[in-house]
Amino acid sequence: MSILHELQQAANNADSPRSWRRELASAIRDPATLVRELNLPGHVADAADRAQRLFPIVVTRSFLARMRRGDPDDPLLRQVLPLDAETETVPGFGPDPVGELAAEQSPGLLHKYAGRVLVVAAPACAIHCRYCFRRHFPYDATPRGDDAVDATCAYVAADPSLHEVILSGGDPLLLSDESLLRWSERLGSIPHVRRLRVHTRLPIVLPSRVDAGLLDWLRATRALGLAPWIVVHANHPAEIADDCADALTRLVGAGVPVLNQAVLLRGVNDDESVLADLCERLVDLRVQPYYLHQLDSVAGAAHFHVDESRGRELIAALRRRLPGFAVPRYVREAAGEAHKLDLN
Ligand SMILES: *Cc1c(COP(=O)(O)O)cnc(C)c1O
Ligand code: SF4
């Protein structure tokens, strides 16, 4: 490697974290700005102000740039725009729709499925998805930093049946590269842990996070004896704009398996062509469509509900149009079950 190349790499490593953090700091956090930037009618901001009191609005500039201006029904906008419908109480929709609090071994550590545990490793996200099943999750009670690593590692080390740890959130890639490395070092020192899975929406909504420092961390994780797997979350093909496609290409190019989970959402992707385009866009980037999730019945999200019969029709249509590896599994999370339920 030439000295020039090495210097350039060092400069990239020093600059990149600042650049994604800068982009995060410029995220939109008030309805008035969102409405102004997208040229929407004023009453949209008034409703959003009312509805965002329980779960504030957050949307990155990069995600905003992919929305159509002047269209309140844009499928990306719908995912982040608070509506009056969120404030309605709907029977069957509650604060903890999948019984997560019952599966908690300690705050933020969920052991529900065989062989793997899920850790709420970060208390925040770069975007607030209005349908999020953790929109009422008590993040304030989850441990941070070394306390979180210590608590998880003590639990995992004591159970040799655990081969995989899933970092979830919030969004675990909002942690610094140093914190991520700490997770890899500590989990990598437990002999029976072989995989580190990361559930993140950042490659989609904040693609600059996939920088040289993150790719270094993935390499370091592998060197520590853990195979990293990444599960991203995109629901609509318009989310996978050029900057996002580049980020996914960098991840796949680093040799990391990348899967996508989507949530079936009324007015966003409950349409055969939209889902087919999403899946094809993903496989063209070598990202595997993994799950299509039935919406969890979380309070405030009932207006996104799509009937399971409709979901099954959509999957049948995808089967007719796409190769088998491009068709996601249609699943639902269920309280007290040993795995997600296959709805097909
Ligand atoms: C979905 C989920 C997992 C992972 O399930 P996979 O089917 O392996 O993707 C693990 N833990 C919890 C609590 C989950 O909700
Ligand atoms: S990024 Fe994931 S965890 Fe965060 S609000 Fe969206 S769905 Fe919820």
Could you walk me through the main structural features you see in this protein, from its secondary elements to its overall organization?
There is one protein chain. The protein has 344 residues and is an alpha/beta fold. It has one domain: Aldolase class I (TIM Barrel), CATH 3.20.20. It has helices at residues 3-25, 31-38, 42-51, 61-64, 75-80, 100-103, 145-157, 177-188, 202-205, 212-223, 242-253, 272-284, 308-321; strands at residues 104-106, 109-113, 116-120, 164-168, 195-199, 227-233, 258-263, 288-293, 329-332, 341-342. It has a ten-stranded mixed sheet. Helix 8 (177-188) links the parallel strand 4 (164-168) and strand 5. The longest helix has 23 residues, at 3-25. The radius of gyration is 20 Å and the shape is globular. The N and C termini lie far apart (52 Å). 39% of the residues are buried. The mean pLDDT is 94. Bound molecules: pyridoxal-5'-phosphate and iron/sulfur cluster. The site of iron/sulfur cluster has 10 residues, from loops.
Count of distinct structural domains? 1
> What is the overall shape?
globular
The first-level CATH class name = Alpha Beta
Bound molecules: pyridoxal-5'-phosphate, iron/sulfur cluster
| β-strand number | 10
Range of strand content: 5-15%
Mean pLDDT: 94
Mind telling me the C-alpha Rg?
20 Å
Question: Helix amount, in percent?
Answer: 25-40%
Provide the spatial order of strands within the biggest beta sheet: 1-2-3-4-5-6-7-8-9-10
State the separation between the terminal residues, measured CA to CA: 52 Å
- Sheet with the most strands? 10 strands, mixed
Low-confidence runs (pLDDT<50, min 5 residues)?
Answer: none
CATH superfamily: Aldolase class I
Number of helices: 13
Query: Under the CATH scheme, which architecture would be assigned?
Result: Alpha-Beta Barrel
CATH fold description: TIM Barrel
